[in-house]
Amino acid sequence: MGKLSKLFCSILLILLAFVLFSVTITYQKFGDMPFTLIRYDSYAYIGKYIPQILFWLSLFFIALIIILLIFVIFAPKKTNRFKISKNKGSLVIDKKAIENFVLNIIKKDSDIENPSVKAKMYSKKIKLNISGDLQPGTNVIEKKEYLIDEISEKIASLLGVTSNIKSDIRFKNFQVPEKKSESNSEVHRSKGRKPRVI
C-alpha cells in the first residue's frame, strides 16, 4: 500500500472513530463504566459545531458503506483456473499456465529484455500486467500496441473462439532503461584504479 493510500485510509478510520466515539458517549449509561465521558457539545468553542459535523460524517459513512456493499456484491469473482469446453472434452487452464504462455510470446521479441508477467483471472476476464526493459531506439507506443494485438489474438485462440473471456493487458515499468552518464562511469573507473607507486 502506497503512502497516499495509507494516509487516506488513516483519515477515514480517524473520522469513523470520531463518529463511533459519539455513539459511545451517548449510550455510556448502558455500559456501567466507572467514569463518565464528556459529551462533545460540552466542549467550549467547538461544542456547538460538533453535532452538525457528526451528522454529515454519518451520512458520508452511510453512503460509503452502501457503495462498498454494491461493489462487494457485483465485483467480479476471482479464479485460479478456467475450464474450457472442447469438442473432445474439456481443458483446464490455470493462472501459471497463462503467465508462462504470455511470457513465452514476449521472450520471442528481441526488443524486450527481462520480461515479467503477472496475471489476475476473473470469471469473464484475464488481467495481465507486463513489465520489461526495451532496447534503445524502440518505439514504446508501437511496441505496446503490437503486443496487445498479438497477445489478445493468441489468448483468444488458446481459449477457443466460443469463449467470451476478455483480455485486459496493462504495462508497468515497460520502458527503455536510462543510460548511465559517461561522467559517472569515468568516476567509477577512476575509483577502481590503484595509485601508481614510483
Automatic annotation (TrEMBL):
Q: Which UniProt keywords apply?
A: Membrane, Transmembrane, Transmembrane helix
Q: Which domain of life is it from?
A: Bacteria
Q: Which residues cross the membrane?
A: 53-75
Protein's name in the database: Alkaline shock response membrane anchor protein AmaP
Q: Which organism is it from?
A: Floricoccus tropicus
